[in-house]
């Protein structure tokens, strides 16, 4: 509202949360994106997507830190590379329109506080691991732009810095990843800070099969119940789905 120079109006927002809290799915960014887009549309849609990301960043900073890795793609859709924060530089990575990409999201009944999961990360990184992860990041970008699902999945699954420290804190996670790959997923890793596991597939039917295997692995190896969802890559981002006529 400050960016729109609206100072004489009060607003009340009602939010229907479609994501589980503290799941590693960026639910706070989803709320921030929805609010920013709704308020912008209410006052004539004068702000562009980059400005909306800046507004969302302020909201995110209050609850989970000043980072755009959730809010930028939530508003812009698809894949977004954050090149820098000062100044804010965002690069939209176009996944080929003729290729299908779906995510299998399996959320266990387990609390993985972001603070605890961040504390598990190393303060210093060995040079070989740094070089390796940089290579995987490059491969990930190249695979997205080329629509190479096998390459995308391989890069996603090959982290040597974060996942090895966080996976042991989520009961059954290592078995879940193995189950996903054996069921035909191109790749699998922890979503955000966890505890949700995310796998990559190219079809809904395969996604359902992978999801079942992952749920069973959480139950068998982690003694945790979980819920699976299969979601298609959203290429558009946050938008108005319905409105009440004035």
UniProtKB/TrEMBL annotation:
Residues 9-78 form the GHMP kinase N-terminal domain. InterPro entries: GHMP_kinase_C_dom, GHMP_kinase_C_sf, GHMP_kinase_N_dom, GHMP_knse_ATP-bd_CS, Homoserine_kinase, Ribosomal_Su5_D2-typ_SF, Ribsml_uS5_D2-typ_fold_subgr. It holds the Pfam family GHMP_kinases_C. Its EC number is 2.7.1.39. GO terms for molecular function: ATP binding; homoserine kinase activity. It is an enzyme of class 2 (transferase). It catalyses: L-homoserine + ATP = O-phospho-L-homoserine + ADP + H(+). It comes from the Eukaryota. Keywords: Amino-acid biosynthesis, ATP-binding, Kinase, Nucleotide-binding, Threonine biosynthesis, Transferase. GO terms for biological process: threonine biosynthetic process. Residues 142-218 form the GHMP kinase C-terminal domain. Gene3D superfamilies: 3.30.230.10, GHMP kinase, C-terminal domain (3.30.70.890). Pathway: Amino-acid biosynthesis; L-threonine biosynthesis; L-threonine from L-aspartate: step 4/5. The keyword Nucleotide-binding applies. Belongs to the GHMP kinase family. Homoserine kinase subfamily. This is Homoserine kinase.
């Amino acid at each position: 509202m400050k960016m729109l120079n609206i100072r004489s109006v009060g607003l009340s927002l009602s939010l229907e949360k479609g994501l589980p809290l503290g799941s590693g799915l960026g639910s706070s960014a989803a709320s921030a994106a929805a609010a920013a887009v709704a308020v912008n549309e209410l006052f004539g849609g004068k702000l562009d997507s980059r400005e909306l990301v800046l507004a969302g960043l302020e909201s995110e900073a209050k609850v989970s830190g000043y980072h755009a890795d959730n809010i930028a793609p939530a508003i812009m859709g698809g894949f977004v590379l954050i090149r820098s924060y000062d100044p804010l530089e965002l690069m939209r990575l176009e996944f080929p329109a003729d290729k299908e990409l779906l995510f299998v999201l399996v959320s266990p009944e387990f609390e993985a506080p972001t603070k605890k999961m961040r504390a598990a990360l190393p303060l210093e990184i060995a040079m070989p691991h740094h070089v390796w992860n940089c290579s995987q990041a490059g491969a990930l970008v190249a695979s997205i732009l080329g629509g190479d699902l096998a390459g995308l999945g391989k890069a996603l699954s090959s982290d040597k810095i974060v996942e090895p420290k966080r996976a042991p804190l989520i009961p059954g996670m290592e078995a879940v990843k193995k189950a996903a790959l054996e069921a035909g997923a191109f790749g699998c890793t922890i979503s955000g800070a966890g505890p949700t596991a995310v796998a990559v597939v190219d079809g809904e039917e395969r996604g359902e099969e992978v999801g079942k295997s992952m749920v069973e692995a959480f139950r068998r190896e982690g003694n945790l119940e979980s819920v699976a969802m299969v979601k298609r890559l959203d290429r558009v981002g946050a938008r108005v789905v319905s409105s009440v006529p004035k």
